[in-house]
Amino acid sequence: MFWEVDGRIGEFWTIRHFEAGVPFRFSPVRNWEVGGFHRLDENTGEGTYFEFRGGNIEMLATGIYMVHIDIRNDRLLIEPARVYLIGDVMNNNWNAENPAHLFTASGTTLVSPIFVDSGYLRMFAASSIAGASDW
Questions:
Q1: Per the domain annotation, does 22 fall within a domain?
Q2: Which of 42, 65, 72, 107 is most buried by a 10 A CB count?
Q3: Residue 133 lies in a domain
Q4: Which one, of 31, 29, 37, 32, lies nearest residue 55 by Cα?
């Protein structure tokens, strides 16, 4: 499942566990051959995290990745997932991308940092192509 980027028409993101070498592509319909695509004009992460092979995408290493598609600007990003915990539970720290608040990957799941206090919490995912936006 993909989620729309808040207030940004034509942008979608998801976080998924991918196995190295298992081919996939994107499609607006549930049909491998109809309407599918595997690359856009700008493909961030190509050669570092994934390669294009035979009309598909294949990950170079097994892991948990953020996939961000920006159809209007013809951009695809695949990079390791960056999910953060912020708020009261992190000593009232709402600093967006604090490395101490980063979830860590463990197998097929993301593990939260340890809460240091009680109260409100939020979590968010970061994307290199999203820029400074509230999504």
A1: yes
A2: 65
A3: no
A4: 37
Phi, psi at residue 99, to the nearest 5°? -55, -30
Same domain, 36 and 86: no
pLDDT band at 77 (very low <50, low <70, confident <90, very high): very high
Q: Is 95 exposed, middle or buried (0-12, 13-18, 19+ CB in 10 A)?
A: exposed
Q: What is the pLDDT averaged over residues 87-110?
A: 87
* Helices vs. strands in the chain: H and E counts, helices first: 0, 11
Cross-strand bridge partners of residue 75? 42, 70
Specify the number of domains making up the chain: 2
Q: How far is 56 from 71, CA to CA, in rounded Å?
A: 18
H-helix or E-strand containing 102?
Answer: none
Phi and psi at 76, nearest 5°, equal: -125, 135
Domain containing 50 equals: 3-80
The CATH number covering residue 73 comes to 2.60.40.3620
Q: How confident is the model at residue 52 (pLDDT cuts 50, 70, 90)?
A: very high
* Residue 55, amino acid: G
| The two three-digit tokens of residue 67, written as one number | 């996939």
For 100, the 3-state DSSP assignment is helix
